[in-house]
Amino acid sequence: MKMKLLAQVFTACLVSAGLAQPVPPTGEAALRSRFTTVYGPSGLINVPSAYVTPQGRLMVGVTLGQDRSAVANYGLIPGIEVGGAYYELTGKTEGEVLANGKVNIVPANFRNVEIGVGVIDVADRLDATFYAVASAQIITPPSVEDQFQGVRVHAGYGSGLFREKLIGGAELLLTPRLSVIGEYDGTDGNFALRYLPNDTVRAQIGVRSKRIFFTLATAISP
């Protein structure tokens, strides 16, 4: 109840300021539940996905926990998102601005598979990072369709922040608005419960680097 109330207040403030209007989660956009990561790009918790912010839309998010970040991603043209994050490490008095960009590629011969290639922290303020990740939607068999909506998996490689290791994760879609996610970011296994309380706001709570965190994000449409 508290999470839902916080999400409603967050949305109301944006709408009243003229900064946002509802972006209904319809069709594939609803299933993907696009989200900002702690470092900036769209994805899970730390790990980016292949998916990008739709053209002309802005995704903003705030994460509170062991580390804190404020993120904004914009769909520049179809298949390309650009953005930045203000990232503050625990114990530090000042944060760093991390610029990022991602290109989404849809292979012609692979059903439900997309590839994302991108850079986090272009200016190397914290740790310049290159990554490539593939994301796939696994369709739910009809026999269990009433139990959950499907599974989305992500796997790739990342340098810098991801320590030159394999990274990846999965999202179990319980309903179009509720999912459970897990990831491995090259160092830790992180987990969260993700929820869309209304047609604009996304919220998640979970464990990142063995500490509890909370993220609130919203889609802004001009």
Number of helices: 2
* Oligomeric grouping of the chains: single chain
Q: How many whole angstroms does the radius of gyration measure?
A: 16 Å
The succession of helices and strands, N to C, reads: HHEEEEEEEEEEEE
Tell me about this structure.
9% of the residues lie in helices and 48% in strands. It is built from 2 helices and 12 strands. A 12-stranded antiparallel β-barrel has the order 1-2-3-4-5-6-7-8-9-10-11-12. A hairpin with a 5-residue loop joins strand 10 and strand 11.
Characterize this entry briefly:
The chain is mainly beta.
Top keywords for this entry?
single chain; about 220 residues; mainly beta; 12-stranded antiparallel barrel; 2 helices; globular
Detail the topology: elements first, then pairings.
Layout: H1 2-16, H2 27-32, E1 58-64, E2 68-77, E3 80-88, E4 96-105, E5 113-120, E6 129-139, E7 150-158, E8 165-175, E9 178-184, E10 189-195, E11 201-208, E12 211-220
Antiparallel strand pairs: 1-2, 1-12, 2-3, 3-4, 4-5, 5-6, 6-7, 7-8, 8-9, 9-10, 10-11, 11-12
